[in-house]
Amino acid sequence: MKIGIDKIGFYTPHLYVDMKKLAVAREIEPEKFTIGIGQEKMALAPLTQDAVTLAANAALNILDEKDKEKIDLVIFGTESGIDHSKAAAIYVHHLLGLRSEARAFEIKQACYGATAGIQMAKGHIALNPESKVLVLGSDISRYGLNTSGEATQGAGAVALVISAEPSILAFEEQSAYVTADIMDFWRPIYSEAAFVDGKFSNEQYIQFFATAWAQYKAKTNLALKDFEAICFHLPYTKMGLKALKPVLLEEGSAADQERLLANYQVSTGYNRVVGNIYTGSLYLSLLSLLEQQEDLADGERIGLFSYGSGAVGEFFTGILQPGFRSHLNVVQHMDLLSSRAEVSVAEYEAIFQQTLPIDGTTVELDNTNDPAEIYLAGMTNNMRQYINKQTEDSIYS
């Protein structure tokens, strides 16, 4: 029985910052952002969007009634959770109108969370072949204004329906994974912004990929020649390249290098104009490859490297399924990205510093300029109120 990605959806807020203009405002050479780390735009979440709404909007347009009847497990990977107790998956489950006979929970391990969810989903489908699992990776990346990590912020979510006999990508059985207790990136519960040791984190990312790749080769006897493309978790678009290049130079033929580097570049397309979305980043890279690379063919093998600081890394693979292109939402995603509005650096700074009350104060948020179907409407008695415009339904935490 094949198990894999049956559907995939993506959502990002309607606002963005131009990285060249941000660089000028920070008195930095623009090329350090656009070329050095490979970022052109940075998605910005207004106060009416949080990890819950981003995930719900990502899933909203890919689910039909048959999916809703078969989904009996919702797994929400995030490091931007809104509650220390109640899982973000519960809110999404309700906002999407999923059936009550379901499990729903939140999972955390930095940017690895959605991948952990996928591995759990595979086990669930193996035991329950008629079921489907909704896996969500949703985050708002925050390091703070005028910080070293500011240029690698972003906001967005990816939603994946995992099922038997998938329409897009079937996962292969073998994977390779590694865990080590390191402090390269973390966010204590008292902090709204993350802390990062950038140089150390880059080194660990590269080392984890090398280790996982070596383990994978030993398990499978596969080599670079067996892959059409390898997608990476991308905190910024140059990061995956730093890990891939040493392996290509040591093991790859000229043809391998040309093919994998070209496809890597395509896979960074969406990330380049959205920024870092933590748990969804790898799958946004995969989505960019699938929707923007016209030369991909049914039956080709795609490698996926997931990395979550702290740290866990995993390398796994999938095979493109017959007719996979007909199950993508290329026009919808391109319209989403092209319809966004640019904000000035001053406007970005003002929006970035807006926060919800933490003392129980009632607040109603103005969503007039937010085109999202699902949004955060406000807070009452320490409860967030979410609204789905399609149903005019609302819920409180």
UniProtKB/TrEMBL annotation:
Domain Hydroxymethylglutaryl-coenzyme A synthase N-terminal: 2-164
Domain Hydroxymethylglutaryl-coenzyme A synthase C-terminal per the UniProt entry, residue ranges: 178-252, 265-354
Residue ranges that the Swiss-Prot or TrEMBL entry lists as coiled coil: none
Molecular functions per Gene Ontology: hydroxymethylglutaryl-CoA synthase activity
Matches recorded under InterPro entries: HMG_CoA_synt_C_dom, HMG_CoA_synth_N, HMG_CoA_synthase_prok, Thiolase-like
Enzyme class: transferase
Family: Belongs to the thiolase-like superfamily. HMG-CoA synthase family.
EC number: 2.3.3.10
Alphabetically ordered keywords of this record: Acyltransferase, Transferase
SUPFAM superfamilies on file: Thiolase-like
Taxonomic superkingdom: Bacteria
A Pfam family per the record: HMG_CoA_synt_N
Protein name as annotated: Hydroxymethylglutaryl-CoA synthase
Taxonomic lineage from the root: Bacteria, Bacillati, Bacillota, Bacilli, Lactobacillales
